[in-house]
Amino acid sequence: MAKESEVRFEGFMPTTPADTWAAITTGSGGWLWPIQYEPRDGGAESGLTPNGGMVTVWKPSQRFVTYAEDENGWFNTLEYVLEPKDGGTYLRYEHNTVLDDFDVEYDACKRHTAFYYHSLGEYLTHFNRREVKYFKTDAPETSKAPEAFEVVRRAIGATVAGDQVRFEVPGIGTIEGVVDYLTSAFIGIRTEDALYRFYGRNVWGWTVGIGHHLFAEDADLAKAEKAWTAWLNGLYA
Fold it and tell me: By its UniProt entry, which SUPFAM superfamilies does this protein fall under (predicted)?
């Protein structure tokens, strides 16, 4: 049964409100996925919701709200409030929407939110305002199995957050980085020129996936997507 939900995040970001605002409104490909907003009250949103939405509040470096709805009573609204604090930004975020399978989707939304806003902090700390190339892909249906994400963790060699890891991706080469996030459902690896994100969505009965943010100037997106897709599929062959 469909039910309304609310998920919140608040925390300190290590950059000015102007930089944090830019990451949210124009730089989401660096930590979330690419979303486009027309920079004005009433501007169009595309890439966040299935049929697009509208910017309802656009106050640069202070407050940003976007809203979408459909004819069946579904809606989705995100609100960001930014305040300068201690040389950085205190960010308050609120997400209200309607979920069909509430218990499953609400848990997924809360846990994804924690990972995404951790990734925002990583982006702002290490890759602020750098050009990014982003891609995502999902593993085969067999990755829905209860222990499927453990296969990814073992392939990476991650045991705790803070680990230094080194593993091979054929077609790319050696990946060396630090485990910046690790839970039963998510793994984050930060290297000198990328944020690699691994999603154990089998926790909710969905397929495992990846979403990678590449900051190297010479990053070959097509090559990376092909190689990582083969790597991921190979884990479940």
Answer: Bet v1-like
* Residue 1 reports pLDDT greater than 80: no
Closest CA to 29 of 150, 157, 174, 133: 133
Q: Determine the structural domain holding residue 221 and report its residue range.
A: 133-235
Q: Are residues 169 and 83 in the same domain?
A: no
35 with 118, same domain: the answer is yes
CATH number of domain containing 107 = 3.30.530.20
- Calculate ∠ Cα 165-15-27, nearest 5°: 75
Mean pLDDT confidence for 151-157: 98
Q: Which of 98, 126, 154 is the last residue of a domain?
A: 126
pTM of the model: 0.97
- Other beta carbons within 10 angstroms of residue 153's beta carbon come to 16
Q: Nearest to residue 109, comparing CAs of 32, 8, 210?
A: 8
For the packed helices 221-235 and 148-156, what is the interaxial angle rounded to 10 degrees?
120
Compute the average pLDDT of residues 130-158: 98
120 and 89 within one domain: yes
Q: What is the pLDDT of residues 20-49, one digit of tens each?
A: 999 999 999 999 999 999 999 999 999 999
pLDDT at 2 over 90: no
Please give the helix or strand (H or E) that residue 232 lies within, else none. Answer: helix 221-235
